[in-house]
Amino acid sequence: MAFGWIDQQVRVRTRRGLVRTLRPRPADSPLLDLASNDYLGLTRHPEVVEGAARAARTWGGGSTGSRLVTGTTELHAQLERELADFCGFEAALVFSSGYAANLAAVTALAPLRSLVVSDAGNHASLIDGCRLARGTSQVVEHADPDAVRKALETHEGPGPAVLVSDTVFSVDGDAAPLAAHAEACREYGAGLVLDDAHGLGVLGDGGRGAPHAAGLAGADDVVVTVTLSKSLGSQGGAVLGPARVIDHLVNTARTFIFDTGLAPAAAGAALSALRLLRREPERAARAREVAAELHARLTAAGHEAVRPDAAVVSVRAPSPEEAVQWTADCRAAGLSVGCFRPPSVPDGISRLRLTARADLSEAQIERAVRVIGETRP
Fold first, then answer.
1. What mean pLDDT is reported for the chain?
2. Nearest alpha carbon to residue 324 among 29, 85, 21, 12
3. Element housing 246 (H / E)
4. Of 15, 130, 234, 346, which has the fewest beta carbons less than 10 angstroms from its beta carbon?
5. Which of 119, 145, 287 is nearest to 203 (CA)?
């Protein structure tokens, strides 16, 4: 049978406690949500919802084609201008997803005979970008500038070299040493590609992102990718950087050239969220405060939690099976939390993953910590 081998894979996954299932949620879920990436609580904000509805009424349900044919509207262009300005870069290019943006940035900036240095804790989209790039990839120790230097020393060319890293890592929520990474790259003339999916809207002045906070925004050797689906409460992604890099992506990035453009409703929602964040920069600080409070209360209660550098709080679980059961028990008690297990975790340690939201109340924070403690394996 052509796909009979899948049955064996199912048995292996079941034995290891790694089976994943889809669970459709209702529009009016009663659960307290600490599982989504809606860091600023904007997904249901009236202005963001109206931005999506207005764009759909104006432009229709879809973008109708690839960006280079009919898929670029005036709305896409406006979003790109305002994103670049907000984050401090010369230009921006919007994609249908953050995943597509990462594939584009890595593959387009790592031609034949180039070297891509990749942090061991990078997101799957960056890893896949490295696999698809025509250059040689070298994985280095997590958040280690000296390991980056050693890797760059081995590159003999003739192609360019580039370091690829998350700014905030999605598993534990720890931040990369961006200034030190930039220094290492500049010693060897290497470029720096940073995925700021978990930094935009949370870190930097008014949520302008981790590169902005590190003084790297607008540098001619730095390219940043972002998602519109986390702090901005919408969907899609973007690449930010020098205008010549963005123009290069327009002409070479396959996930831009051959993919249908982002739906207008998503672009409209993201633009409304971005403008709201400009007016209410305190949302970024509040997300960080909630994360710090969650961490303090969890560790005080005896949980092993990683100190958050942004809005992700990671709580260690004894095993994949117990992580799954712990998550289910939290859900039964009215709390939705994430569950990270191999192969999603680079160190093989399963976790509950909590996302702090700027709109969480003190009572909700207290309730979340209580439920996690009461359901602990």
1. 96
2. 21
3. helix 243-252
4. 15
5. 287
The 3-state DSSP class for residue 191 equals strand
**Residue given tokens 């633009």 in the structure block:** 271
C-alpha distance from residue 200 to each of 37, 136, 142, 208 (Å)? 12, 29, 21, 6
Structure tokens at 85: 């300005």
Q: Nearest-5° angle of CA 298, CA 304, CA 309? A: 75
pLDDT digits (tens, 9 = 90+) for 165-174: 999 999 889 9
- Number of CB atoms found within 10 A of residue 258's CB: 10
Sign of CA dihedral 155, 160, 166, 171: negative
Q: At a CB cut-off of 8 Å and minimum separation 6, what does 119 contact? A: 139, 140, 142, 143, 164, 165, 166, 169, 176
User: Across the chain, where does the E strand assignment appear?
Assistant: 32-34, 91-95, 115-119, 136-140, 161-166, 191-195, 222-227, 237-241, 305-306, 312-316, 335-340, 351-355
Q: What's residue 291's pLDDT?
A: 98
CB atoms within 10 A of CB 11: 10
Peptide bond into 158 cis (omega under 30): yes
* Token pair of 7 as six digits: 């049955």
Within its chain, how far is the Cα of 271 from the centroid? 18
Say whether pLDDT at 344 is over 80.
no
- How many whole angstroms from its chain centre is CA 138? 22
What are the CB-based long-range contacts (under 8 Å, 24+) for 302-306?
Answer: 302/373, 303/372, 303/373, 303/376, 306/172, 306/173, 306/174
Nearest in space to 161 (alpha carbons), one of 124, 136, 139, 179: 136
Give the C-alpha separation, 289 to 304, whole Å: 19
Report the sign of the C-alpha dihedral through residues 187, 171, 96, 285, in that order.
negative
Dihedral through CA 319, CA 320, CA 325, CA 331, nearest 10?
Answer: 120
On the question of a cis peptide bond just before residue 264, with omega within 30 degrees of 0, the verdict is no
* Cβ proximity of 92 and 81 under 8 Å: yes
